[in-house]
Specification:
- The complex is a heterodimer of chains A (173) and B (566).
- Helices cover 54% and strands 1% of the residues of chain A.
- With 173 residues, chain A is mainly alpha-helical.
- Chain A is rod-shaped and about 155 Å long.
- Classes of the chains: A mainly alpha (173), B alpha+beta (566).
- Chains A and B meet through helix 1, helix 2, strand 1, helix 3 and helix 4 of A and strand 3, helix 9, helix 18 and strand 23 of B.
- Strand 1 of chain A pairs antiparallel with strand 23 of chain B, so a sheet runs across the interface.
């Protein structure tokens, strides 16, 4: 195993003492020296132009990208709008058709329930006849109930729906 | 050269562009909008007419109407040839409409059924279009036709209740303003303004559809049986004044009776004859001229002025109670009582019982009847008017007068509409008008007893209904001639009016037959009353009021049915 060499010491610079000004003497830096070249402005126009061009290019690209993106978004939105409008038209037509169908069915139900049609089916198709005599049953002795007439209840006799069943349909038409 | 052409084209485009964008941009925008904007009329749904149980008696259903834009019809001849058989129209007539005018809208067939509309659509003819229009239907056919009335092809009421309540039924049409493209589709995001149509109100009538059917059936059958010219019948709830059924039928010789075009029970008058004795006796009792048990000596003829009145059958001069005079319908006895009362008082009671004034129903074409003012009465009028001749009333008036006796002396206002249902479906009951007291409760009770006897022991025997007490009065009136002053020979109006059960009236019914054979009201009209009353009492579940005449028997459940299997 080779010995590890000791790190080399770097020379430490001696502290610089400020020179004490000698009374009556001129500081060195104020002493006239050899004439220095005149200062002039560096021409960085080309640099600035290049920077400006870069910025403009960046801006242009960004704007173009944004414009294209906006147009695409607009086109997509419009396409969606048109598509939904077509769907809406179809749905409205479908709703109108369904409503018409509903009303036609209501008419059909009312026609089928009409007394003339019911009597016609009962007598002609089913061979039913009106009773010759209606027999009344007197109440059983001890029964406190009122005597009841023979025959069906009004609902059955008239074949009618209660009003509550009809009413909800009226406002929606 | 090419450069010049390009420059000219460019200049042209520039000029056009300047014109479009700078000089008249609004005009062009408006023109474009006008081309895209379509106004679609939304017809209002006409309200329905319901019976008291919610059954639709009249309703509107959308149908298709075929119309043409003649300018867009490329080949009118071929179009007419293809359309005519589908529309069941004459080809020449279709062609005439397609080429006959300058209009861009011509109706070809209105409110056709769905199958024919589909057939027209499948033809796909240029310039031929379909549009939706509501059409009025009566699901029960001619049931209560005269009462319900008619609507014209544009949906306006022209008669009956359809006319009377037209403003309520018709609703308000709406409008859809929409931007459409060339293909007819809605332009997305375009202008769209919708004013929805408002459906008309629905009317819930007091009529009961089943009872109406039975009334029409019974009446028509009797018209056929008695070879009558026609008939009328009205059924009311005498307490509330609600009209449960009203029918009028007429029969052409050899034809099946059909409903009259108008509601004759309100629009036609008839001389009521003896049934109007209800008014005379009501006045007599109310004025204290006589009591039901008072005995009077009644001959079989009586001279009043230059005229001699007789009873329907000759009889010796005999003592009769006032109740018997009514029960046997003695003309002479009635006139004797009327003379004792005096014409002023009798004339006053005619008005109080509702004769000579509208019923309050405001039905289109309703007649107030014909009642001569007392000051115009001839010397014989006290005799004729007391027995229901020389005056004319409509059927509802006559039944209304009888109802006074069934309603403790109060004349209930007749009603045909129970409630109105607004477009939102909310039902608003129509308040009943206050009744008018005509006679006292005591008088009404006395009259009810006498009228009950008129059925059980008098001329109204055929009006009896098993299990119930019936009060009523027969009438057989001579018919005035339409050609000369006086009565037609051998022409009679047969009437029966009554209420049931007599002690707690639920139904009052009047039946009138025009020139029936035989013609006695008690023979031809009373049985129809009984038939209608029996059905109505069963329909309303009114318990029998008298014990059945037969011994209790066991019956199969099917015996309770209205119809039994043959």
């Amino acid at each position: 195993m080779s010995p590890v060499p000791a790190p080399a010491r770097l020379p430490v610079p001696a502290p610089v003492r400020p020179r004490r000004a000698v009374p009556g003497s001129v500081p060195e830096h104020l002493r006239p020296s050899a004439p220095r070249p005149r200062l002039r402005l560096v021409d960085n126009t080309r640099l600035e132009q290049a920077t400006r061009r870069r910025r403009a290019r960046r801006l242009g690209i960004t704007a173009a990208v944004l414009a294209v993106a906006s147009l695409m978004a607009l086109a997509a939105t419009h396409a969606m709008l048109v598509s939904n409008q077509v769907r809406l038209d179809a749905l409205e037509a479908q709703a109108a058709q369904a409503q018409g169908r509903h009303q036609a069915l209501r008419l059909e139900v009312a026609t089928l329930e009409s007394p003339a049609r019911v009597v016609s089916v009962a007598t002609e198709r089913l061979g039913m006849v009106p009773p010759e005599v209606v027999t009344y049953l007197p109440p059983v002795a001890g029964d406190q109930g009122e005597p009841r007439p023979s025959g069906p209840t009004p609902e059955v006799a008239s074949g009618a729906l209660p009003w509550g069943a009809v009413k909800p349909y009226l406002g929606s038409l | 050269m090419l450069l010049v052409a390009m420059l000219m084209a460019f200049a042209g485009v520039s000029v056009r562009l300047t014109h479009l964008q700078l000089l008249a941009p609004e005009a062009h925008a408006e023109r474009g909008m006008a081309q895209r904007l379509r106004t679609v009329e939304l017809p209002a749904q006409r309200g329905s007419l319901f019976d008291r149980n919610g059954n639709e008696l009249a309703m509107s259903v959308p149908q298709q109407t075929v119309w043409a834009d003649p300018r867009l019809v490329t080949d009118p001849t071929t179009t007419a040839a293809e359309l005519a058989p589908v529309l069941d129209m004459d080809e020449a007539k279709v062609l005439e409409r397609l080429v006959g005018g300058d209009s861009r809208f011509v109706y070809l067939a209105r409110q056709i059924d769905g199958d024919r509309a589909a057939a027209v659509e499948s033809l796909d003819l240029d310039g031929i279009n379909l549009r939706e229009e509501p059409r009025r239907f009566r699901p029960a056919g001619d049931l209560a036709a005269g009462l319900l009335g008619e609507v014209d092809v544009d949906g306006g009421g022209v008669s009956g209740l359809e006319l009377q309540y037209d403003e309520r039924l018709v609703g308000e049409p709406g409008e859809l303003l929409v931007e459409r493209g060339a293909a007819g589709g809605t332009i997305a995001g375009g202008e769209k303004r919708l004013q929805p149509a408002v459906r008309g109100d629905d009317l819930v009538l007091t009529i009961d559809r089943s009872l109406q059917y039975e009334v029409e059936r019974s009446l028509s059958q009797q018209v056929v049986t008695t070879d009558a010219d026609g008939g009328m019948a009205v059924v009311m709830d005498p307490r509330s004044g609600e009209i449960l059924a009203m029918a009028s039928v007429e029969a052409e010789p050899g034809a099946t009776p059909g409903p009259t075009a108008d509601n004759a029970t309100l629009t036609d008058v008839f001389e009521p004859g003896s049934v109007a004795k209800v008014v005379t006796f009501g006045a007599v009792a109310e004025e204290g001229v006589a009591e039901p048990d008072d005995v009077m000596v009644v001959p079989d003829s009586l001279r009043v002025g230059p005229k001699t009145f007789t009873d329907s059958s000759s009889h010796p001069t005999e003592p009769m109670t006032v109740a018997e005079v009514l029960g046997q319908s003695s003309n002479v006895g009635t006139i004797m009582l009327a003379r004792e009362m005096g014409k002023e008082r009798l004339g006053g009671y005619l008005g109080r019982f509702g004769f000579g004034e509208p019923t309050g129903l405001d039905f289109p074409g309703e007649t107030p009847g014909i009642i001569p003012p007392v000051e115009d009465w001839a010397s014989t009028s006290i005799g004729s008017i007391a027995i229901g001749q020389g005056i004319a009333v409509n059927a509802v008036q006559m039944l209304g007068a009888l109802n006074v006796m069934a309603n403790d002396g109060v004349r209930a206002q007749p009603r045909l509409v129970r409630s109105v249902v607004d477009p939102s479906g909310e039902e608003h009951p129509v308040a009943a008008a206050e009744g008018a007291r005509v006679v006292s409760e005591e008088t009404a009770a006395k009259m009810a007893t006498m009228l009950e006897a008129a059925v059980s022991d008098g001329t109204g025997l055929n009006a009896r209904v098993e299990g119930y007490t019936v009060a009523g009065k027969t009438g057989t009136a001579r018919k005035p001639s339409t050609e000369f002053r006086g009565y037609e020979s051998g022409a009679y109006t047969s009437v029966f009016a009554g209420f049931v059960p007599a002690e707690d009236p639920q139904l009052s019914i009047i039946v009138i037959l025009d020139e029936a054979h035989p013609y006695y009201g008690g023979v031809v009209a009373a049985p129809v009353f009984a038939e209608i009353a029996e059905y109505g009492l069963r329909l309303l579940s009114v318990p029998p009021t008298v014990a059945p005449p037969t011994e209790p028997v066991e019956v199969a459940p099917s015996a309770d049915d209205v119809m039994t299997q043959d």
